Amino acid sequence: MTIPETTDALLKFIAESASPFHAVAAAAARLDNMGFTELSPTNTWHLKKGGKYYLRIYSSALVAFCINEHPLHSIRAAAAHTDFPCLRIKPQASISKNGYNKLNIEIYGGMILNTWLDRPLSIAGKIVRKGETPFKPHIDLLDFKRPMLTIPNLAIHMNRKINEGNSLNPQKDMLPLAGMTSCDKLSDDFFLEMLAKKMDCPKKEILSYELTVYPAESGCVCGFDNEFISSPRLDNLTSVSACIKALTESNRPDGINIAALFDNEEVGSRTKQGAGSLLMPQVIERIYKNLGFSTENYFADIAGGFLLSADVAHALHPNNPEKNDPTNLPLLNKGPVIKIAANQSYAGDAEAVGIIKELCCQHDIPYQMFVNRSDMRGGSTLGSILSANMPMRTLDIGIPILAMHSAREIMGINDQPAVEKLIQTFFSA
Predict the structure, then answer these.
(1) Which pLDDT value is given to residue 166?
(2) Where in the chain are the domains?
(3) DSSP string covering 52-78
(4) What is the distance between the alpha carbons of residues 183 and 96, in angstroms, rounded to a whole number?
(5) What class does this enzyme belong to in the EC scheme (predicted)?
(6) Which fold does the domain 86-215 belong to in CATH?
(7) Is there a contact between 345 and 384 (Cβ–Cβ < 8 Å)?
(8) Tens digit of each residue's pLDDT (9 = 90 or more) over 360-398
(9) Which CATH superfamily is 5-84+232-428 part of?
């Protein structure tokens, strides 16, 4: 199987996006290269027809938009999330005991804990340092980009029932090993000292941090015919990358195209930078007012707009096919998935499904359907949350993957170009 060019681009983007902050920085760099102008949420905007803009929100969310020559009467938006299940490092994280240095962590999102054991792990995120005034601290992004930590399994000789199912205690069993020590203490010294050395600043200047422990192993192509991609963070950097690429390649004379990347989906989205906030409707309202359009225009175009919520979907598992619905069976390499749920955990209605199906048919884009088994509780994503605050026709889509929320996930190599084509067509048709 020929490896699509999109594979290298996706794996490069994932490697750059070791935290939500880095995902936004990587997306912003690509928008800069395509001639987009960065706006500040706290400054006055001066927008014009034909302009391309983006703004970052608290470093971990981003909204980008293109104002086409005839902006009224057609909003098209695509949304994804920048966060992923991981370990987050607590304040005063250093633990030194029995000759070992460990880090105190907490679980972020619905991780499959045992997939993180025995792997080389690294650290990335945001550091806050003292600035000229308390309200203007220095903000730095940090990515060590090398293996630094590991979480060792307990040998089978010490847990003979480990293969019968092993329950892991996050506070006890998931603490990463960082090194060796000569004394037992609970202290912030060794971790803060390491951060200060990396930042080349006195330890007392570091006020706070938001740091993610992430798998240090790179993504790769695998399979007898190179038909799969194995990588960390496929959920949901596949969609983040697709939204940004599709927006930069969109071309239509009418309406406004928007790509929105939200944080905190894995923990519920109800944050100032999450899809459960008023961020998206406020940005769109601000665009309309800046262009001189009325509130009536804004409400009318929200009602007539369309939102694609892009997040990964569950592929049919080769060893557990009974976990899927018996008649809706998404497979790897068969195209993006339209996700349906009667309880609206996935957003959508018959018209939305029909529109996207017809787009796919007209442009030779393969697509599949996903519905949860009727006796199983499924997941949820951005669509219903976002459209509740912004009543716009919405549909949840995404590429199918295996091992969702594992330290490494699996996707089909042909599904990334297919979802990119779908979103680009959606923006351009």
Answers:
(1) 82
(2) 5-84+232-428, 86-215
(3) EEEEEETTTEEEEEEE-SEEEEEEEEE
(4) 7
(5) hydrolase
(6) Aminopeptidase i, Domain 2 (2.30.250)
(7) yes
(8) 999 999 999 999 998 888 778 999 999 999 999 999 999
(9) Zn peptidases (3.40.630.10)
> Of 47, 57, 199, 111, which is closest to residue 405 (Cα–Cα)?
111
Could you give the strand order of the β-sheet that contains 220-222, starting from the edge strand earlier in sequence?
A: 220-222, 228-231, 409-412, 400-402, 313-314
Mean pLDDT of 114-123: 97
3-state SS assignment for residue 229:
strand
Tokens of 25: 């920085």
Task: For residues 391 and 410, give the distance between their C-alpha atoms in angstroms, rounded to a whole number.
Answer: 34
Residue-wise pLDDT tens digits, 298-317: 999 999 999 999 999 999 99
Is 117 buried (19+), middle (13-18) or exposed (0-12) by CB count in 10 A? middle
| Burial (0-12, 13-18, 19+ Cβ within 10 Å), 130 | middle
**Is the whole model's pTM more than 0.85, yes or no?**
yes
Does the structure show a pLDDT above 70 at 187?
A: no
> Which residues fall within 8 angstroms of residue 6, CB to CB, at 6 or more apart?
416, 417, 420
